[in-house]
């Protein structure tokens, strides 16, 4: 019996060593260790072994099983590793081959400025509200204290669709839509496209604005100046100063224009600031009592400030765009500069 065991071990190891594929090894496993395999066959011969010898022989058969198992597993691992090595060699990537270039587009400078402003205002807690581009005369004008035939309508050349429906001339109707649907405290910005019948180097029939509105108790002009200074520094750099100049808008009282000190010359006077040292960037003011009342907010309890920023103008200043029509000409050479 002992001889049988050692012979079987020898032939098994030889076959395993000369096997060259995992399939052959799997067949060998069945032939040696399977239900009717040679090792199992040995156990069946145990009845012919002297009872006193049986434990010893039993142990030997077990050892044989373990040795064969180990040899099979080692050989399988070895073949797998060889296969992997072969594959890695044959599938090597030639990194010297030139790659296919992907064409990447660029964002319009208007989108860049819009994103920058939205980011900055969000940081101060402003929420976004977007109103419709086709608007009612009542909301675009009347509720904002610009009645029909009011001379202030001359400030905005309007595309009318019917007598009472028009393309919004500014984003200020966003204020009305927010105030009539929400109670204070209000802190919103309304970005969007606006339309005016106007066309030259600094005016386009379609352009973009961001409206801002804050309504709460005890809001003052100081809040307006503080918040806008913060934002304008983000856009034009830390060194700029701001100043408020008296102005007129029917929907604010008092109304102001906000100027920034020229970021090109530092205020000394240059071509960009036309020698004045200051550049006008936006219109703003304290929300007119009449507008609050028109929107159902008690002006004796609440006050607010509002402002309107023209995105084309900010982008023209920031990126030295000489003519507003360049934004809408679809000339790829223009847009490529903003990659
Ligand atoms: N709506 C004005 C325009 O388009 C801009 C503006 C000025 C908006 C003052 C405001 C504001 O909210 O307070 O010319």
Task: Give an account of the 3D structure.
With 339 residues, this protein is an alpha+beta fold. Helix content is 40%, strand content 19%. The strands form two sheets. A seven-stranded mixed sheet has the order 1-4-5-9-8-7-6, with helices on both faces. Helix 1 runs parallel beside helix 4 (54-90) and helix 5 (109-123) crosses helix 10. Bound molecules: 3,4-dihydroxyphenylalanine. 3,4-dihydroxyphenylalanine (DAH) binds next to strand 8 and strand 9. 3,4-dihydroxyphenylalanine binds next to strand 8 and strand 9.
Quick summary of this structure?
By secondary structure, this protein is an alpha+beta fold.
Describe the secondary structure blueprint for this structure.
Elements: H1 2-18, H2 22-33, H3 38-44, H4 54-90, H5 109-123, E1 127-128, E2 134-136, H6 137-140, E3 165-167, H7 173-179, E4 186-195, E5 206-216, H8 221-236, E6 242-249, E7 252-261, E8 278-287, H9 289-294, E9 303-310, H10 311-319, H11 332-336
Parallel strand pairs: 1-4
Antiparallel strand pairs: 2-3, 4-5, 5-9, 6-7, 7-8, 8-9
Bound molecules: 3,4-dihydroxyphenylalanine.
Any ligands, ions or cofactors bound here, and which? Answer: 3,4-dihydroxyphenylalanine
What structural category characterises the helix and strand content?
A: alpha+beta
Average of the residue pLDDT scores: 91
- Number of H- or I-type helical stretches: 11
Provide the spatial order of strands within the biggest beta sheet: 1-4-5-9-8-7-6
Name the shape in a single word.
elongated
CATH class term of the largest domain: Alpha Beta
CATH architecture identity of the largest domain: 2-Layer Sandwich
| Helix proportion | 25-40%
Distance between the termini: 84 Å
Give the H and E element order: HHHHHEEHEHEEHEEEHEHH
CATH superfamily of the largest domain: Bira Bifunctional Protein, Domain 2
Count of folded domains: 2
Taking all Cα atoms into account, the compactness measure Rg is 41 Å
CATH topology of the largest domain: BirA Bifunctional Protein, domain 2
Low-confidence stretches: none
Q: The biggest beta sheet, please?
A: 7 strands, mixed
How many beta strands in the DSSP annotation?
9
Strand content: 15-25%
């Amino acid at each position: 019996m002992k001889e049988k065991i050692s012979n079987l071990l020898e032939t098994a190891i030889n076959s395993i060593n000369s096997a060259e594929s995992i399939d052959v090894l799997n067949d060998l496993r069945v032939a040696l260790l399977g239900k009717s395999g040679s090792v199992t066959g040995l156990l069946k011969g145990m009845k012919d072994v002297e009872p006193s010898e049986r434990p010893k022989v039993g142990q030997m058969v077990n050892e044989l099983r373990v040795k064969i198992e180990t040899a099979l597993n080692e050989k399988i691992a070895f073949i797998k590793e060889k296969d992997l090595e072969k594959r890695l060699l044959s599938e090597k990537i030639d990194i010297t081959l030139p790659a296919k270039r992907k064409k990447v587009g660029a964002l319009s400078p208007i989108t860049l400025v819009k994103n920058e402003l939205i980011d900055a205002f969000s940081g101060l807690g402003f929420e976004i509200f977007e109103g419709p581009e086709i608007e009612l005369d009542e909301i675009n004008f009347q509720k904002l204290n610009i009645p029909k035939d009011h001379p202030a309508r001359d400030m905005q050349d309007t595309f009318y669709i019917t007598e009472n429906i028009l393309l919004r001339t500014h984003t200020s109707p966003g204020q009305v839509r927010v105030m009539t649907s929400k109670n204070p405290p209000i802190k919103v910005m309304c970005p969007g496209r606006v339309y005016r019948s106007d066309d030259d180097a600094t005016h386009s029939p379609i352009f973009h604005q961001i409206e801002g509105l804050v309504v709460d108790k005890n809001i003052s002009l100081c809040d307006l100046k503080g918040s806008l200074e913060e934002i304008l520094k983000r856009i034009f750099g830390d060194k700029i100063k701001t100043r408020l100049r008296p102005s007129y808008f029917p929907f604010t009282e008092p109304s102001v224009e906000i100027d920034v000190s020229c970021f090109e010359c530092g205020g000394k006077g240059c071509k960009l600031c036309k020698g004045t040292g200051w550049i006008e960037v936006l219109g703003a003011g304290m929300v007119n009592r009449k507008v609050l009342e028109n929107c159902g907010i008690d002006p004796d309890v609440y006050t607010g400030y509002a402002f309107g920023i023209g995105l084309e103008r900010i982008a023209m200043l920031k990126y030295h765009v000489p003519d507003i029509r360049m934004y809408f000409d679809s000339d790829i050479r223009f847009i490529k500069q903003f990659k």
